[in-house]
Structure formats: structure tokens, C-alpha cells
Amino acid sequence: MASEITYAEVKFNKTPPPADPKASSKTETSLSPFQRIPFWFPWMMSGILLLLSIALLVCIFVPLQGWQMKTLLKSLPQNSTSLHCLLETEQKLSCCKEGWKSFQSSCYYFSTQRGTWNNSRLMCMEMKSDLVVINAEAEQDFLINQTKNLSQTTNYFIGLTEQEKKGEWRWVDQTTVNSTGTFWRKDEPSPGDEPCVVMHITGTREKKNWNNVRCGPDDHHHYICESKAFVLDCGF
């Protein structure tokens, strides 16, 4: 579109008249949409984008500051600051110590060393956790999948033991075992003095792999610890 030009009448005199401060000598021209944008507008948009970026960083890092950082460190196994996090919901991150596996708001540690059932539980407790309590089939499947690459048969202590009353099995959190949610191997639990329970992991990855074993000082097995994941809430 051609620019609209306003012509002004100009008279030449030998002696120019005094300048009128109210008069405008500028030629009027139409402005494009971009020319009408105030000079400060790009700076304002840059500021808004910067604030959004800061808000995202605050969501991630602010929960790890101050008293929340202290709470996190106390709740983590071995007081480690090395974490890995999974997005649990759109606004929540579920975090575990590096080397632990995350599943449904819990963290799991699969030991490389072996010990008695009592010593295994103490090792878990030193890491702010306890021997694993298996509450559902999905959790059992998860534990099996985490051990699928084992090259040899391995037993892992879990947090289930027989009470003084024979036939009564109880978890370390004092809940009784659910008969419809157990995963005993065939012909298990066997009678006799075998009050502790292991997951008997083989290359076949059988879902029903619980086996009761002896708990003596010479009975050493690997173990699985479980702790609550540290959840970071990024909601505003």
C-alpha cells in the first residue's frame, strides 16, 4: 500500500516569521503494524518467558532446599544426595537413591551381599528401609522382572516370617499375609523349623517363588529392602 502524503503550502519571505512551538513541521505517514508496537514490548515478552523458565526451575530445585533438603537426606538410604526421579503424575516426581529401583511410590534395593535374616533386616534399617513387604501381584511381578538377568539361582530374603503360632505368617510391618495374595512355590510352605521366607529366583522367572527356609546363623541369603520414595510436589 502506497504511503499517504500530506502536502504543506510553503511561502518564502525575506524575513522568516517567528517559529510557532505548537506547529508541527513533520510529515505524517501511516505506520505498519510492527511500527505501532511499543519499543518496550519485546522486552516485556522476554521478561515473561524468563519468569516461566524460572518457575520451572523452582519446581524442580526449590523442594530440595532448606528444611526439605534435610528431610530428604534423612529419608534417603546411606544419606546420599544422588537421586533418580520418575514422573508419577503431571505434578509429582517420585525419587529414589541411585542404585535403588522405583515402583509405585516405593524404592527397592537388591543386595549383592548375603547375610542371615536378622542381619539382612538390620542392613535395611541402617539404610532407612526394611525388608520388602509384597502387597500385590503387580509388585511381585516387578520384583521378578528386576532379577531376570541373574545367571544363577538366587534366594532373596523378604520381610515375611512365621509366628510362634504355627501356620501364622506375618510381615515386618505387622500385617498378616493375605492367603489370596501369596506366591508360594508348589508344596510350600513346608513343615519344620523354617520360619523365614525367600524369593527363590531361577531362570524360569516363575511368579510363585516363595520358599520358607531356616533362619539360623549359618543360613545366609541375599535380601531385598523397601522404603518409601521421596515425592516432590511441583504444583503451584
TrEMBL record:
Alphabetical list of InterPro entries matching this protein: C-type_lectin-like, C-type_lectin-like/link_sf, C-type_lectin/snaclec_domain, CD209-like_CTLD, CTDL_fold
Keyword Secreted: yes
Record-annotated C-type lectin domain positions: 103-215
Keyword Membrane found: yes
Annotated keywords: Disulfide bond, Lectin, Membrane, Secreted, Transmembrane, Transmembrane helix
Signal peptide extent: none
Protein origin, superkingdom: Eukaryota
Bilayer-crossing regions: 40-64
Cellular component aspect of the GO annotation: extracellular region
Record's subcellular location: Secreted
One example GO MF annotation: carbohydrate binding
Record's protein name: C-type lectin domain-containing protein
